[in-house]
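User: I'm putting together notes for a lab meeting next week and I want to include a structural view of one of the chains we've been expressing. I don't have a solved structure, so I'd like a prediction I can at least talk through. The sequence is below, exactly as it appears in our construct file.
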Amino acid sequence: ELSNQTISLLTWTTVRMDSTYDARPGEKLKTLEVLAKYKPEVDKINEPIGFCPTGLERKSPCGPMSCWATDAYLEYARNFADTCRSINFPDGLKVDFSLMNFGGMRTEMPKGNVSKYDILSIFPFDNYLTYIQLNGRKLKELIEFFSRTYPQAMSAGVRLVVDGYRVKECTTNGKPLEDDK
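Assistant: Thanks for the context. Below is the predicted structure for the 181-residue chain, given as structure tokens.
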């Protein structure tokens, strides 16, 4: 039943963007005026902010790009947890590893200078760092799910041995998971 809903008919056409839209001699395009307005801000995000000597390839689940990203998240999470211990984290609770949706990384890290634009291209979404506490049993279930579906990126400190679609071994920080810990 579609009462209280509006139905709209959408139509579209394909517009070929080619030299037909180039400026003719003596003509000033509105597009160039609009682009000029944003050029200073675009130039800022293209300035180098770092250097990557090798480039980082995006391979699932544990290629150089996913290892770099999850390790960076892990370091950030640990520093944040230590800073906010009195507010959010009970004494003794620590961040063991980080996990990231592999699809959240959209491209690879270029070799050479790295700009904010590169980082925004790699991570184009407004993601949030979320802390969760799982016992070993629940973590095993999660990892078993990933092994049957699509592996996700995990930081250093997690070691998995997967045979077919079954997790044969899982350790965090060199220690086997304990079901109730």
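A couple of points you could mention at the meeting. The chain has a mean pLDDT of 83. The two ends are 51 Å apart (CA to CA).

User: Perfect, that's what I needed.
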